[in-house]
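Summary of Year 1 activities. Much of the first year was spent building the evaluation harness for sequence design. The harness presents a backbone, in tokenized form, and records the residue chosen at every position. We chose the following record to illustrate the format because it has been used consistently in internal testing since the harness was completed.
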């Protein structure tokens, strides 16, 4: 069972669009849209949000994201009305980026707290190298490889999500580098911010007990063109 998501928006079309994108990134995660008023107008509806939360909960809890302040209030009221309010949490996060990050985390089997954290930390750009950031490398052997992207869209939304999902749960710190930019291999948004296109070469570095397995999985994805 995976954590479910609910997208709360004043616009039905906006909620549905964000939910659609998130579902493309995480096909096994239940993402429900709760946007607009029952008559199609702009606003948020308590009953619609409550129903969406109940439908999204498969047993591992639900994370709710919202667009504007009053949507937050409606989402929080819906959570309070649940039989077990502790089964759901409203997260302050960028709506689109947060939904994508949360969906990918849920797809990888993360618990509700980790999914909520993925959403709230979303929106970052490519990260500096660990040495430049003053970080110590993770324990364990380090392995590296270089890959040339041959798929049409490069390392953008869907391929980035596939990469993150492929290494989820491994004991490995994975870094992807294009030129001078480096990103966390476990972050869809950071990978997308590299703007790696077809024909670009990326360097993959993995450190940890399962570094070799992480490298092999990413190589396999690249060899099959990220299933395009």
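For this record, the design step produced the sequence shown next.
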């Amino acid at each position: 069972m995976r954590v479910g998501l609910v997208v709360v928006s004043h616009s039905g079309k906006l909620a549905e669009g964000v939910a659609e994108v998130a579902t493309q990134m995480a096909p096994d995660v239940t993402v429900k849209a709760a946007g607009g008023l029952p008559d199609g107008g702009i606003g948020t509806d308590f009953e619609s949000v409550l129903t969406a939360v109940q439908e999204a909960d498969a047993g591992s809890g639900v994370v709710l994201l919202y667009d504007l302040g009053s949507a937050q209030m409606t989402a929080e009221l819906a959570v309070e009305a649940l039989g077990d309010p502790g089964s759901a949490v409203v997260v302050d996060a960028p709506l689109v980026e947060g939904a994508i990050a949360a969906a990918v985390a849920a797809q990888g089997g993360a618990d509700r707290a980790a999914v909520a954290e993925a959403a709230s930390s979303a929106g970052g750009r490519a990260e500096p190298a660990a040495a430049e950031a003053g970080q110590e490398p993770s324990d364990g052997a380090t392995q590296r490889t270089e890959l040339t992207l041959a798929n049409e869209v490069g390392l953008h939304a869907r391929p980035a999500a596939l990469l993150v999902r492929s290494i989820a749960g491994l004991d490995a710190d994975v870094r992807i580098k294009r030129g001078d930019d480096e990103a966390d291999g476990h972050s869809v948004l950071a990978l997308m911010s590299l703007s790696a296109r077809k024909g670009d070469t990326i360097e993959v570095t993995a450190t940890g007990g399962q570094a070799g397995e992480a490298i092999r999985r990413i190589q396999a994805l690249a060899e099959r063109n990220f299933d395009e």
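The mean pLDDT is 89. Quantitative recovery figures across the full test set are reported in Table 2.
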